[in-house]
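## retry 2 of 3
previous attempt timed out at serialization; input unchanged, resubmitting
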Amino acid sequence: MTPSSFSGLDLLTSAVIVLDDACAVVYANAAAENLLESSARSLVNQKLNDLFLNADDLLQVFHQAVEHQFADKRQDLTLQRSGREPLHVHSIVTALDNPDMPVLIELRENVQQLKLDREERMLDQSQANKELIRNLAHEIKNPLGGIRGAAQLLELELPERQLRELREYTQVIIKEADRLQTLVDRLLAPHRHPHIVGDVNIHEVCERVRSLIVAEFPQGLSIQRDYDLSIPEFRGDKEQLIQSVLNIAHNAAQALSDRIAQGDAVLTFKTRVVRQITLAKVRYRLALDLHIIDNGPGIPAEIRNRIFYPLVSGRDGGSGLGLTLAQTFVAQHLGTIECESRPGCTDFRILIPLP
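## retry succeeded, writing output
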């Protein structure tokens, strides 16, 4: 086995280094180059205590691996580096059946692992939400028609004198039934309409949303554009993506009401390309990276982790469906939505695979 035998490890997102029997690096994958901020050529022949100021724990485990005291060993470490930020990593040390290259060390940034765990929970929650919404909406829909019909029949059966006195109440029943019917229709919308696939230019989507937001908020709101015009077109449902971006941008504009009144509200559309990214447990070579950023008060802490749940809203009178529908539509494009929020900056990030 030679260092070139490990070339397939370049496809991994976690950093991998292979050590010889003298504890010197003989191979480092691309992720290790990124994590350690050094080229593979400069990493080769460096020892663990050259890479890290506090390598004692890793050195101890290295010697245990050489002696085949275990197959692999995992631990969380904070690795100090000269003149650079410390690395908070989850390390996996594996004993190899090769006396010349006896140890492989995999380093995963804990932040990345937390992100992957959060994505997995969001995917599971999204699937559960879809099943719950579909079943609940159908359960509500059937009796709603009966309630509305009964109120209409009651109006027809009531004598004229009683009708004048009671029509106010029957109209309340009918109007509330209609309101609930509209809510149910919105809940079922993603599952009813076919996925119409065509060529999508993400900047046309952003510009369409921008024009709609400007029409509703003509004063006090500045909409900035930071586009990467090299982003290729991709196959998708343009109307679904417009609705997704519009839901997020409209929520942001409403959250900016105080700043709009002051005249210093800013909403930013930013597009980039990211490479070698994992979405929903699938690795993609390229992905669209769309940010919708506002300088509002931020999402309240008590709902920050639940904003994509149905019927959760941080605004009085909000339906709590906008972000749920946005997430559903983006998921139908094999993508995800992430959010980071603090006072003065809320950043919604849409990631969608590119061809």
